[in-house]
Amino acid sequence: MGHTRRNLPTMTTILAADDRLVEVGIGRRTELAATLAERGHAVTATDIYQRDVPERVQFVRDDIVDPEPSIYADADAIYARNLPPELHRPARDVARAADAAFLFTTLGGDQPAIPVERQPIRSGTLYVSTHRESSRDA
What we know:
alpha/beta; seven-stranded mixed β-sheet; 7 strands; 22% helix; globular
């Protein structure tokens, strides 16, 4: 089988479809937010701790478990990398309230704690919350 991950999309490519993005829990990994901002996207990064982010990325200190809704209100998509399972539901709920897409990756073998569609990407699997479809069908 000649299948390789080289031909799969990256998280950057997928998120580039949206203009206004919020990264939850940026931590010290700023390269994705930086790349998206350099390509003209409005990127806000959040974390529970004060973090240094690239110049074009706006930083807001926030806790996704007790969020400030205005931070996420204008987002087209909310995303997170290496998001632990206990934060899947709170982040999904914030995205739902903002009517934004919610996409995330997990740590190692952690499985999603919410309904998702799985999308293979070069670095592993991107989980896309199905909250938008289910809320519109209800």
